Amino acid sequence: MQMGCNWAGIPELTAALDVRAVQTRAAVPGAVQKVMQGVYERSQGLVPVKTGALRASGRVLEPWVDGRDVGADVTYGNAVINYALDQHNTPWYYHPVGQAYYLLQPLLEAVPTAAQTIADDLAWR
Question: Which pTM value belongs to this model?
Answer without folding.
Answer: 0.84
